[in-house]
Q: What sequence folds into this?
């Protein structure tokens, strides 16, 4: 299964992301994932993350239900909370890995064996 992002439409405070689902040997199906724009602001998630978040939600939904009863899905507050939680955990792991690297000691210059320098 391949999801192909086809763009978005926005009306009032809702953005609808369009995806085509391509499965070998089957006709292409169109799916729409809508999200309220206020959720991006409330959770401090960049709008540029919208397509990836929607694709992840859609992919998970299609794996559990290959023939969905509807082609319209919604990115919810819970989805945003899960994303921000994962993002915070990844940042904490990154910060921890930086802390675990030992500091390099400054090497002292070795005395030169040249007779010109004393």
A:
């Amino acid at each position: 299964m391949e999801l192909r992002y086809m763009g978005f439409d926005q009306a009032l405070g809702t953005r609808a992301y369009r995806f085509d689902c391509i499965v070998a040997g089957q006709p292409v199906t169109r799916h729409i994932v809508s999200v309220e724009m206020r959720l991006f602001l409330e959770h401090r998630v960049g709008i540029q993350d919208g397509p990836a978040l929607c694709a992840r939600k859609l992919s998970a939904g299609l794996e559990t239900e290959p023939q969905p009863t509807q082609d319209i899905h919604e990115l919810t507050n819970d989805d945003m909370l899960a994303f921000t939680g994962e993002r915070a955990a990844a940042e904490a792991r990154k910060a921890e890995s930086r802390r675990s690297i030992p500091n390099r000691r400054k090497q002292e210059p070795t005395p030169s064996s040249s007779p010109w320098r004393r």
